[in-house]
Amino acid sequence: MKSALCAVLLATFAMLTACSNTMSGGSPTLSVVASPEWAQHQDFLDTLEHRVKSEWHANITMDKVHPPAGTTVTVEIRYYADGGEPAPISISGGDRKSERACARALMKVKEAWTPEMIKSLGDHQTMTFTFVYP
Question: HSE (CB half, 13 Å, CA atoms) of 73?
Fold first, then answer.
């Protein structure tokens, strides 16, 4: 009896979660294109991506950013080894508010690189971030 009740509760939860994701259009997605040299520093890159996505989600919520579903914003940005201010090179694909939410997320995340990273990556790297709104 208990296992049947648990199964019903789990099925109900799964159904509610699916409805919630469908109603909200799913969740925003982020992808990063970086040079092959970053493969040696995948943990750092993963952390960077996670932090940028967290900042982006916060910006979307705080600024009430609701572009049309599927809006894709692409930002090319240069990050510096010393953890200095990132330099946006180009931004495209969305309206002003959606682009600003993405750029602000990228500008907020900065961290100095280790000596090993500097050895393989140099003093700066240009990366492309693609943000897709649900």
Answer: 29
pTM over 0.90: no
Domains contained in the chain, CATH given: 26-132 (3.30.1150)
Three-state helix/strand/coil letters over 57-107: HHHHHHHCCCCCCCCEEEEEEEEECCCCCCEEEEEECCCHHHHHHHHHHHH
Q: Which of 58, 59, 52 is nearest to 109 (CA)?
A: 52
Dist CA 74 CA 94 (whole Å): 8
Q: Please say if the pLDDT value at position 23 is more than 80.
A: no
